[in-house]
Amino acid sequence: MRITRTGGGRGRRAAALTTSVLTASALLLTGCSDDSDSSTTDANGNITLTVADFGQFGYKEAGLFAQYHKLHPKITVKEDTTTSEQDYYPKLLQQLNTGSGLADVTGIEVGRIKEVVDTQAAKFTDLSKTINVSDWVSWKEKQATAKDGTVIGAGTDIGPMSLCYRRDLFQKAGLPTDRDAVAKAVKGGWEDYLKLGEQYKKKAPSGTYFMDSASAMYNAVVSSSAKQYYDADGKPIYKDSPAVQQGWNLAAEAASKKLTQGLAEFQDSWTAALRKGSVATVVCPAWMAGQISVNSGDAYKGKWDIARAPGSTAAAWGGSFLAVPKSGKHVKEASDLVKWLTAPEQQAAVFKAIGVFPSNKGAYELPGVKDAKLPYFNNAPIGQIYAEEAAAIPEAVLGAKDATIKDTISTQINNMEQRGTKPADAWKAATDAIDKVIG
User: Fold this and answer.
1) How far is CA 122 from each of CA 93, 339, 403, rounded to the nearest angstrom?
2) By the 8 A CB rule, do 36 and 48 touch?
3) 3-state secondary structure of 289
4) What is the rounded CA–CA span in Å between residue 25 and residue 23?
């Protein structure tokens, strides 16, 4: 997983799965792997290409770099991984601005793609001449398309939404446990989700909470809307955005009613809560299942399940791109590598290895995706759930500082949960901080 991602992304992520087995060992975070600053060519014409990314894109876990070398014996691919996207992105911007140190292929987080498209597109290769953009879900490649029509990134994965819940805790609290029944209970939307939380609280097993984090729910609410933080003209609208207002109000309600444990996702306290079994529900973009299974451990295998997300509007939380800087020594070879890594078969292999859901539509009918189930989650049919969700996700308007806005608002939601900060004070703190960044 790219677990230390910005709030604009997945929080990435480690969800190793097969259609029958979830392999925890592939889910653990990796630090830097094979390091290389640039491509090289030896005296025999052998090429080394470097892929710079963050967290866990899953290519090594799926064995794709080794496979590519077998297909192209004169090309060796090395991965330069930065654990935290928040560390990775400033470095990428510095490299782009100085024109040095860039890898042959570089990953870009969805929360950053708009800023890169608007300010750095001229420094990247137009991949529309290499890939068929119509192979992806329509909104994915539009996110990486500049005004002149050039496509600077090929989509890797997306984060269609679901709801992960503890069947055993629901049963003890007198709530439905069947995934279809749970989906029906929250069919009206996130408001119904909170109502279910109030029911849970009445008979909640001692020491447990209905949800882990109100900020996660907030991100899910906002992610289900086409209009989020910016309008189509690039103007920040987060203060007046109906989606932001709805998400914020629901988060404030969850905090005030003590329906949440008030945990900052992916921090030590969050992983400890999963390990102790104190959380009944977690908002679940596709990549979250791996986080839950790894951190909850064998003691809770089969006790978790996955239901469709609340409401009738689909949502996407997370996703990345692979791009090819023009300054590379082997642009054509790098572009060919990107095309291959993001093809249906390779995206399906990554899904099998670490559970990140493909953005290339061609993968959805492949057996390893279409028929995928998660044994850890009571054999939840995730291939079906996420494919249907992906088809209905609205095309969101992205902005240059989406990630910053999301992070800042999430921090203040955590303050409402953990410190009892009043909603009005928390909102003012968030908007003041955001305005200092975006002007």
Assistant:
1) 13, 20, 22
2) yes
3) helix
4) 6
Give pLDDT, residue 355: 80
* Whole-number Å distance between alpha carbons of 134 and 155: 11
Overall average pLDDT of the 256-265 stretch: 94
Token representation of residue 292? 């839950």
Residue 205 · residue 373 · CB < 8 Å: no
Task: Answer whether 154's CB lies under 8 Å from 340's CB.
Answer: no
Cβ atoms of 408 and 415 within 8 Å: the answer is no
Which pLDDT tens digit goes with each residue over 367-405? Answer: 899 999 999 999 999 999 998 888 888 888 888 898 899
Whether 392 contacts 370, CB under 8 Å: no
CA 21, distance to chain mean position in Å, is 22
Coil vs helix vs strand at 273:
helix
Contact predicate 7/410, CB 8 Å:
yes
- Total residue length of the chain: 439
Residues near 301 by Cβ (< 8 Å), separated by ≥ 6?
293, 375, 376
- Reported in sequence order, the residue ranges of 177-242 that DSSP labels E, i.e. its strands, are 209-211
**Nearest of 218, 220, 318 to residue 15 by alpha carbon:** 318
Task: Using pLDDT thresholds of 50, 70 and 90, give the confidence band for residue 278.
Answer: very high
CA distance 293 to 303: 10
Give the rounded distance of the alpha carbon of 26 from its chain centre. 17
| pLDDT tens for each residue of 208-221 | 999 999 999 999 99
Q: What is the pTM of this model?
A: 0.81
The residues with which 374 forms a beta bridge, in sequence order, are 380
Band of pLDDT at residue 114, cut at 50, 70 and 90? very high
Q: Give the count of alpha carbons within 13 A of 139, CB side only.
A: 18
